[in-house]
């Protein structure tokens, strides 16, 4: 089966093929890179330029392959997969730096308010995690599903694209970007360290489960707020966002991306509901962090849908 895109010809690059969503993604990436650059130059932060080489190289290769499948051998599916993956890589790198910079602002923590909200919802973090600690198999399962989220994002782009829903891929990638920006800005204006960092349970309590995020992992957050950790390297990424939970946001967006895709949807739903249940345990989050992350995902998905245009006309020749 050969795909022929009726709207793509062998024409020089004009940018028109990017569409509204594509141009918005590029503007977001360039805008974040500009903010990162100015912020680092005007502060005592330093950036490890060598750490960006791998991301830059892979992004350039993907962009070149995308161009090949748009101009030399038009195949809309492969072009879209390469383009959207390149967007994701470039955005993830620049947004990771922005998250570090924003965390360093160091506004007052709001964990006391988040803990109070959890209490009103009937949620007690120590009881919840203690339940898992008493059942080691649950702790293992929790950690296993929690660490799948980033891989799931990449696999979602590939799977949904190969299933033929290219518009959904474009919407998903834009929603991931918008969701990240909402979480980064919110976490800077309403910073929190999460239930783990607030309660700081005894080490023997944590050792019963050995969660993915422990107090040592959380130390990077406190160091940035205290004026430390001024060397930024993409080789040492750290999750710094507590409120809203970005893990929760990504999980919901992955579920949305598979809506209407039969068994794939049910698999994505089951796995990512499990991730959200695991987030207070292996991410050290308050329950309200998870709920806020769900709200962010919904907002990002609706907003992304307004920018993604109807797919270009594609006819299939067998």
Can I get a quick summary?
The protein contains 14 helices and 4 strands. The protein is mainly alpha-helical. The strands form 2 sheets. The chain has a two-stranded antiparallel ribbon with strand order 1-4. Strands 2-3 form a two-stranded parallel ribbon.
Would you give an account of this structure?
The protein is mainly α. It has one domain (2-317). It has 14 helices and four strands. It has helices at residues 19-41, 53-72, 76-103, 111-120, 125-133, 136-146, 149-162, 166-189, 194-199, 203-207, 215-225, 246-257, 263-282, 287-305, and strands spanning 2-5, 46-47, 231-232, 314-317. The strands form two sheets. The chain has a two-stranded antiparallel ribbon with strand order 1-4. Strands 2-3 form a two-stranded parallel sheet. Helix 8 (166-189) packs across helix 14 (287-305) and helix 12 packs antiparallel against helix 13 (263-282). The protein is globular and about 60 Å long. Mean pLDDT is 88; it is low at 1-14 and 310-318.
Features:
mainly alpha, disordered N terminus, two-stranded antiparallel sheet, 4 strands
Number of DSSP-assigned strands: 4
Order of helices and strands: EHEHHHHHHHHHHEHHHE
- Please give the order of strands in the largest beta sheet: 1-4
Oligomer classification: single chain
Quote the beta fraction: under 5%
Q: For the report, how would you describe the main beta sheet?
A: 2 strands, antiparallel
- The proportion of residues forming helix, as a percent range, comes to 55-70%
How many domains? The number is 1
End-to-end distance, in Å? 5 Å
Question: Helix count?
Answer: 14
The helix/strand class is mainly alpha
Radius of gyration: 21 Å
Mean pLDDT over all positions:
88
Query: Can you tell me the overall shape?
Result: globular
Low-confidence stretches: 1-14, 310-318
């Amino acid at each position: 089966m050969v795909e022929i895109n009726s709207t793509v010809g062998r024409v020089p690059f004009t940018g028109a093929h990017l569409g509204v969503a594509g141009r918005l993604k590029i503007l977001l990436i360039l805008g974040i890179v500009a903010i990162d650059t100015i912020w680092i130059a005007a502060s005592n932060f330093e950036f490890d330029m060598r750490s960006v080489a791998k991301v830059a190289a892979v992004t350039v290769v993907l962009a070149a392959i995308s161009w090949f499948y748009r101009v030399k051998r038009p195949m809309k599916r492969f072009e879209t997969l390469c383009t959207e993956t390149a967007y994701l890589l470039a955005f993830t790198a620049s947004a990771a730096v922005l998250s570090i910079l924003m965390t360093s602002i160091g506004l007052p923590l709001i964990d006391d308010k988040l803990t109070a909200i959890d209490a009103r919802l009937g949620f007690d973090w120590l009881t919840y995690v203690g339940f898992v600690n008493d059942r080691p198999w649950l702790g293992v399962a929790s950690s296993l599903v929690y660490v799948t989220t980033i891989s799931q994002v990449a696999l979602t782009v590939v799977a949904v694209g190969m299933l033929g829903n290219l518009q959904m891929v474009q919407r998903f990638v834009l929603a991931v970007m918008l969701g990240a920006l909402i979480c980064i800005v919110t976490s800077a204006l309403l910073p929190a360290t999460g239930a783990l960092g607030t309660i700081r349970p005894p080490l023997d309590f944590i050792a019963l489960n050995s969660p993915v995020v422990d107090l040592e992992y959380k130390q990077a957050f406190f160091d940035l707020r205290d004026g430390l950790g001024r060397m930024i390297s993409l080789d040492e990424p750290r999750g710094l966002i507590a409120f809203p939970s970005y893990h929760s946001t990504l999980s919901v967006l992955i579920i949305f991306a598979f809506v209407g895709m039969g068994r794939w949807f049910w698999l994505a739903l089951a796995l990512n509901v499990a991730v959200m249940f695991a987030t207070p345990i292996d991410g050290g989050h308050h329950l309200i962090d998870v709920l806020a992350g769900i709200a962010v995902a919904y907002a990002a998905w609706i907003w992304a849908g307004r920018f993604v245009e109807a797919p270009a006309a594609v006819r299939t020749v067998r």
